Amino acid sequence: MSNWDLMMPGMGLTGIGLAGLILSYAGIAHTFIDGMHALTGLTMFVGLIFLAAGILDGGISTSKRAKITTLIIVAISLGFGLYALVTMNTSDFTLTVVLILLAVALPALIIGYLAMKKPGSIKPIGLVLGLAVASAMVIWVTAGSMNSEDTEMVQEMIDEEVAEGLAVAPIFTIDILKDSAQQGNPDYSPDRAIVTQGYTIEWVNEDVAPHTVTSGVDYGETFDSSLISAGGKFTLDTTNLEIGEHEYLCIVHPWMIATVVIEAPKEATKIIIPEGAAIPEDGKIFYNPETINISTGTTVEWVNEDAAMHTVTSGIPASGSDGVFDSEILNIGDTYQFTFADVDNYDYYCILHPWMIGTVNVE
Q: Number of structural domains, the chain?
């Protein structure tokens, strides 16, 4: 008879590991996938060692208890497997699982066999495997260190090129509050964020615990930050997000739930730089209208209809630009747009003609 004390945990661990691998590689598990791959692979590896040792200790059991347990494990595995095949989202799923199973099963069976038949060979084999793993890690780290500077330089060049080719989208910030990991405390602020489509949402983790920002309805299909460590950030481009409400949560602390409402972009509010604005005259309007009141998320567009060059620069002439926005030189017919994300009163002027001043009040 086989060793039932070894076979029982072996079957259980193998079944758990197999189910986890199928869930991971089928794309059913959307969070902590890399960690799940490693954990379930290790679980299955250990389970197969127990299973092989139990079988080799006394042969394959033919008892009813063994048959029932085997049928249960097979049924669970087949159930997960069929579900994964129906819902899988990668074309190479089957090949991936087969290769993973072979990579895990073959070494486990060999180690199990040696453990039962040739226990004296376990130590040297373990030493060789340990040295191989250690050598691989050293080579990996060394190669990474040698190429890290070049990699960083290339990445910086790529980032600069991308930044030059893209317009900077306005940023809407959502804070993950301190002590939000404790149930009942305030968590995301604002809890209900209304954001114009096209904005970039930035979540900032002000807590000491790690958190996630994971879309709730589809468990991370729409967006998923993975773990955001203390002080970390997660940004989301809303350009392709559907108009409407998107509920999200923290997978680590599922009581943390909030909502992002995506609104359609608002039509730009126009301000005209009229003809003759470069000539100072009392009572003359240089930006038309000179003062406007708008809501957050509104885009303002300045149009230069004058024959002279002008600028739209935030600040006041006495102290200069405050750096919030600056159109640089606008030639005749040029336009400049800026989206106001924060509530405040914004004064601006023309650097070339400092008597030209205007105000945007954001409510």
A: 3
The runs of H, that is alpha helices, within the chain are: 4-25, 33-58, 64-87, 93-117, 122-165
pTM over cut 0.70: no
Please report whether residue 133 resides in a domain.
no
Q: Does residue 137 lie in a domain region?
A: no
Pair of tokens at residue 279: 């000539």
Q: Is the peptide bond before 289 cis (omega within 30 degrees of 0)?
A: yes
Q: Which of 95, 129, 89 lies closest to 110, judged by CA?
A: 129
112: containing domain: 4-117
Beta bridge partners of 253: none
Distances (CA, A) of 208 to 181, 193, 252: 9, 23, 13
The set of residues, in sequence order, having a beta carbon less than 8 Å from that of 51 and lying 6+ positions away, is: 6, 7, 10, 11, 14, 112
pLDDT digits (tens, 9 = 90+) for 203-225: 999 999 999 999 998 888 899 99
Query: What does the chain come to in residues?
Result: 363
Neighbours of 75 (CB within 10 A): 11
Q: Produce one character per residue of 319-331: b if its CB has 16 or more CB atoms within 10 Å, e if not.
A: eebeeebbbeebe
Find out whether 74 and 131 touch, Cβ atoms under 8 Å. no
Give per-residue pLDDT as tens, 135-158: 655 554 455 444 445 545 545 654
**Is 292 contained in some domain?**
yes
